[in-house]
Hints:
Elements: H1 11-25, H2 37-44, H3 48-61, E1 64-66, E2 72-74, H4 78-102, H5 107-127
Antiparallel strand pairs: 1-2
Amino acid sequence: MAWTFSGREAVYIQIADIIRQDIFKGKYPLGSQLPTVRQLAAEAAVNPNTMQRALLSLEDEGLLYSKGTVGRFVTDDEAVLLEAKERMIKASVRQLLDGALSLGISPQALAEYIMKEQKEERDECSDN
């Protein structure tokens, strides 16, 4: 099934985000080999050059490394993984906070919205 992309940013950036999240979730464990560029491109229904660009950006971050013709692998350095996760969390929080501030919502009110939403979600899960 093809991956879904939005028009908000370049497709290769969205691909890198998806693969980064897959690494964080454990779909691609530390030290594991990724599918080939062509396999990933076919799965995502994108041009292999677009996939290559996304993977190169993940290499630049240190999340992936290449073993020449053998393929690409996820880093086995947990510190690199934790640092990348921290960067992603900070960026998400910054985006959320910027959006809230533009609506006139204070950081404290935003935190209350988040806690309320989490409680409602837990309550819904316990009802099922």
